[in-house]
Structures are given as C-alpha cells and as structure tokens.
Amino acid sequence: MNQPPARRPGDRVVRRRVKASQTIDLPHGIERQGVPNVRQHAKLFSLALVAVVLIASVLLALPWSSRSGESTPFIDAFFTAVSAFCVTGLVVVDTQTHWSFFGQLVILLLIQAGGLGFMVGASVVLRILQRGATTGLRETLLLQDGAPTLSLREAAGLSGRIARFTLTVEAVGALILFVRFADDQPLHIAFWHGIFHSISAFCNAGFDLQGGYASMIGYQSSIVVNLTLIALVQAGALSFVFFADLNAKRRWRTLALESKIILVMNATVVATGVMIFLAAEWNRTLSQVAFIERPLVALFQSVAARTAGFASVNFADVTTITLFSWVAIMFIGGASASTAGGVKLTTVGVIGLAVVSTIRGQQEPQIFGRRIPTPLVFRAMAVVTLMFLAHFVATLALTVTQHYTGSDFTFLSLLFETMSAIATVGLSTGITPLLSDPAKLILCATMIFGRLGPLTVVYALQIRQHAVRYRFPEEPVRIG
C-alpha cells in the first residue's frame, strides 16, 4: 500500500464531500517567491548600503559640503561616506574644519542610519536564527526554506522598541553634552555638538567636531564629557537585547546565559584595557596628566577601544605595547546585535569556554549550570578564523600598496590601521589622511566587510547546518 506523501510547511488538508461523478479543483499551494525572508533582506541591505554610500559620496563631493566651497575629491568623499555608514570613524579630512554644516549633517545621518539600521537588522536576523535553532521542526524547515520565523508584527514591534531605546539614550546624552559644551561654546554650536557627539558615541562611530584631528583630547580632564561618552558607548556596544533582558530579569540567577557572558566578558575586557594602558602609558602619554585623572583617561581609552574610536590622547605617541594590545581589544568588539564591531564578546567567550573545558577534560563547554552546544563552538571558531584571515589579507594588501608608493609607515601602524577598519573602531596613529588612493579603497572594502562579515558568516553557517544521518568511522590524528 502506497504511503501518502509527507506534509510540508504551508500544505493544507482539504476535506469536501463530493458526488461520484463530480470533479473539483484543488487550491494552488502557497507561493513563497513573494514571502519576505532573511536572504532577501540581506540582499536588500547590501544593495541599500551601496546605494546610500554612493549617493552620500556624491553629496559630500559637492562644493557646498565643504567649508572652502570647493569640491572634495570623490575618493575622499567616498571614504568618508563608507566610514560614517559603517560607523568606523576613520577620516581622511578633518570633520570639523573641512566639512560645512551640510556636510556634517550628511555624515551624521549616515552614522545614525548605519548604527540604528544595523542594530535593528542584526537583532531581527539573530532573533530569527535563535528561534529557528531552538523551536520545533516546522520553524526549522521554514528557516531552511527561506521563510521568516518572525511575523511582521513581531519584527515591527522589535524594531520600534530598538528605535525608541536608541533615540531616548541619544537624547539624554545630547542634553548632558549640550549643557557641558555650553560652558565653552555659543549655544547654537554647543547644541549641534551635543547632538553630533551623542549620536556618534552611541553608534560607536568615533566622529568628532573638535577640529585638528584632536578627537576628545581637549576634554581629557572633563568628568562630565568622559563619563557621558563612556555611558553612550557602552549603551550602544552592549545592545538593546542585553538591556531588555537586564530590565526584565534584574537578577543574576534569572538572566539569560548570553547576558551573563556579555557582562563577564565586557568587565574583563574593560578592566584588562585599563590596567594595560596605565602600565604602558604611565610615563608616556599619561606623564602630563594629573595623577588623579589618569584612571579616568585609561577607562575612557579602554571603553573607546571597543569600536567607539574616540581618543583623549594622541595615539601617534603611545607605546608599541598599547598599540599591539589595542589590536586584540578592537578585534573582540562589543555584543551581538549592537552598534559595535569586532567578532563580538560572546564569540570570544564561547571559544574561551571551549579552551577552559578542554583543559578540564570536559567534552562540552559548561558555565553557570549550562552547556554550550558543540556546533555553536565550531561557528564561533569559524567567525574568528575568517576575521583573522580577512585582517591578514587586508594588512598584506595595505603593506604592499604603501611599499610601492614609497611610504615609510611602520608595519605596526598598518596592522593597527587595518584592525581599526575591520573592527569598525576608528582609532588611528594619524596615517589615514596620508594613505594613497588604492590604500584608501582597501580600507573601504575592509570597513564594509568588518561591518557585514561576522553576521553574514553566522547566518550562512546556521543555514547550512543540517542533521547528519550517518557518521564516518572515528580515527584519531596526532596534534601538538
């Protein structure tokens, strides 16, 4: 006896009583071509990125976008647009002295669109992947088929909450900064600077309006400015999803495992950065800073290194110890679905747990009474490996380009610059404006990859994951 075909997602059972001689037409199956899905949104986001960057580049290249009234070279306008939309902060011209108010407004809109847009998009995609990985067979089949596992109402609700969170935090930060800047500047300039720096800090962009490529050196000793920017950077780098879980649970025991890992990793990275900066720069860039203000400067730099890109010291004068250590801190970045870049705190946390568990003789990573699935460890290793490979290729390309153009930049400076680009940080030793045009294009490609790469890899790896119906015979190999 033939078995009836298995039902597929979207199939319907139609029961109707008919006469012996009557025929009926069955309804057509659900057309999935028009259903919105993650693949389509990823393509649309990539196309939108290219379109927005090109349009913004044209606007920034126009004469009225610069203070001098002269057209900006298109390569510089393009670099600025990519850096702003990818919320990186690397600049080839000074934001305050080169761009007019119109140019600065275009840059600010790019920062807001890039930061908020990516946080909303990443949150929706990761929620879909999480639901597809933790729910039943139907959701898994729908995800593999390209259909969404979030309804439009759920996606719209999540997007609205993220937008309200973002605008509220930025408004509070802008008000505080406006009050502080009003002590030094006319009210209309203080108002604009408060808005600009608040959005730039929350989106972890690192663009500033202080002039002379000085970043926040002029406010090095200002407790209000430093603490406000630190709070804004952390709010953007830890993500709405984390704060929503923190607000809902409010107790360590009931927090989601991901939130616990983010808290532990964030505290560890920030504390490590503070200690390294104090030790390495105590008699260097901190030598002219008042003793009581040095911990604040170190804290600001440690937090900003997480992809914010602000600096209250001149990174052209820091020690090689700081530069090399900051490469690692920039590579880690912030939390998933945040405005920060890097491979993300949870990714590094999962790999660290796998190493610790291996040393302990455990077969799976375990922490806080929970275990991490082995496929998740493999995906984390793949993300880190691919980002390492991309950084190596970008550094090699930048080194070769500058070698043939006769530049005498040190290898560590180029290594630092490419990590700043791929982790969308924006810190620089001052060489960005001096790079050749091919090198600028390399950094543009690096910034775009750094913004989209980790999330794209995670999505692609989970989509390709499937149940294995067989296992090959096991055979050990020698390692170490």
Structural summary, described in words:
The chain has one domain (38-464). A two-stranded antiparallel ribbon has the order 1-2. It has 16 helices and two strands. The N and C termini lie far apart (57 Å). With 480 residues, it is mainly α. It has helices at residues 38-61, 74-85, 95-98, 101-134, 137-144, 152-181, 187-202, 223-238, 240-249, 257-281, 294-304, 320-332, 345-359, 374-404, 411-422, 437-464, and strands spanning 366-367, 370-371. β1 (366-367) and β2 (370-371) form a beta hairpin.
In short:
This protein has 16 helices and 2 strands.
Essential attributes:
single chain, 480 residues, mainly alpha, two-stranded antiparallel ribbon, 1% strand
Please outline the helices and strands.
Layout lengths: L37 H24 L12 H12 L9 H4 L2 H34 L2 H8 L7 H30 L5 H16 L20 H16 L1 H10 L7 H25 L12 H11 L15 H13 L12 H15 L6 E2 L2 E2 L2 H31 L6 H12 L14 H28 L16
Antiparallel strand pairs: 1-2
Helix pairs in contact: 1-2, 1-4, 2-4, 2-16, 4-5, 4-6, 4-7, 4-16, 6-7, 6-8, 7-8, 8-11, 10-11, 10-12, 10-13, 12-15, 13-14, 14-15, 14-16, 15-16
Terminal-residue CA separation = 57 Å
What is the number of beta strands? Answer: 2
Mean pLDDT: 83
Q: Cα-atom Rg, whole angstroms?
A: 25 Å
Which bin fits the share of residues in helices? 55-70%
Describe the biggest sheet? 2 strands, antiparallel
The DSSP helix count reads 16
Helix/strand structural class: mainly alpha
Which blocks of ≥5 consecutive residues have pLDDT under 50? 28-36, 133-148
Which term fits the overall shape?
Answer: globular
User: Could you give the order of the helices and strands?
Assistant: HHHHHHHHHHHHHEEHHH
Count of individual domains: 1
- What share of residues are in beta strands? under 5%
Strand order of the largest sheet: 1-2
